[in-house]
Amino acid sequence: MSNIKMPGRKSLTKSDIVRAIQGLINHNQLLSQRLDDVDRILGDYITFNKNMDKFEEYLDGKYKQHEDEPSGDGSSASKK
What we know:
Order of helices and strands: HH
Strand content: under 5%
Radius of gyration: 24 Å
Largest sheet: none
């Protein structure tokens, strides 16, 4: 790439970059907090319904890898 400046266009300053990175960090923290909230609420709901064992069996049946299938190659499509 060349260092040719576009006419009428301001270059980014260090504070612009710091501000953008700080915005990304804040957004990431917000998403993480909301994900934790959803995890806690789902766990509380399962406990409330007293379905923990049934739910674990369902998840094991749906997501547990079979011994004869290779893992992580990404060649097989997800079935829904």
